[in-house]
Input
Amino acid sequence: MTIDSPPPGLPAASAPPSARTRIRRIPDNARYDAATVHAIIDAALVCHVAFTDPAGVHCIPTACWRMGEHLYVHGSNGSRMLKVLQSEHGAAVTITHLDGLVLARSAFNHSMNYRSLVIYGHFEIVPEPGKSAALAAFLDHLLAGRQAEVRPGNAKELAATTVLRIGLDEAAAKVHAGPPEDDDEDMAWPVWAGVLPLQLSPQAPVRDAACSTAEPEYVRRWTERSFAPPEEPPAG
Ligand SMILES: Cc1cc2nc3c(=O)[nH]c(=O)nc-3n(C[C@H](O)[C@H](O)[C@H](O)COP(=O)(O)OP(=O)(O)OC[C@H]3O[C@@H](n4cnc5c(N)ncnc54)[C@H](O)[C@@H]3O)c2cc1C
Output
């Protein structure tokens, strides 16, 4: 598999923000611009957070959202991950959107289309009043309009919840899109070649048995929500 074949037609990458974010493997796929970084986070509901503690190296999936130049995560005060992330140790966050399987004529040239992101840095705690605002933004990131309808978090719930954020100043994105790229001598090989697109596909809502409230717009239109990649990658 050559996952890293250069994407056709993408603009040249801007400069990496640090030595460790410089994409060495197929640098033509590198994207360091804020528009690409923001778009990858905004299209994500989940990230993976890597960190170390005395027990070893961990990589934990968790919900995420963006406000300005920070990625946010939240959870119970009792979360091991959230406690460790408040220490002086650094962390790495990744997000991957898998956009398709790229079927080449040779086994070697098979690939994937994707938008991925790696962020390095240190998480910091978000105290009140920013904590409540961040949690409201999280619910609206999941479903625009939901926050205004639900019972707001009370003092006890807020006190039991930790919100952390990490800056986006050390982030690198990698984007691969396009058809298979076969070697000339393989082009006549009699096998189907092309792209099998992939994306999250929202399914019909399932009403709770004890709920008699009318469906709001974001529920009625849930199956129309698109997780497709942007038509044109954001300019670098
Ligand atoms: C869906 C998917 C499937 C993949 N499958 C394979 C596979 O099967 N085999 C394989 O070798 N590679 C695969 N890759 C590419 C892989 O993520 C790495 O980019 C590649 O393996 C090079 O790793 P490296 O540590 O040598 O990168 P380097 O270029 O040395 O990494 C340097 C820095 O670049 C940044 N970086 C590296 N990779 C990424 C990335 N994907 N997204 C954002 N920033 C990045 C990080 O900051 C990293 O520290 C896949 C990527 C995706 C998104």
